[in-house]
Amino acid sequence: MTPAARRQVIEILTTEHRLSVRRTCRAAGLARAARYVPPVDATVRDAAAIDVLQGLVADHGRWGFRKYYDRMRLDGQQARCDQTRR
Hints:
mainly alpha, 7 helices, 2 domains
């Protein structure tokens, strides 16, 4: 079950069946914070890292993941390892 489907289940259980948010989140297997905080699209969140990577790939097309990651860190970018790998 996807997190979006779990959020829908939580909404139905809290509004129609009048169960507590704590109980419905526990039953659905989703953290209560996930009910209140909307998900952020990965392309929007990682836009800065994507722009930097595209520039590096244009200049150094044969480099691998580690060199791109190291270059980004040396240039002062706050990129995580998983952002670079994607």
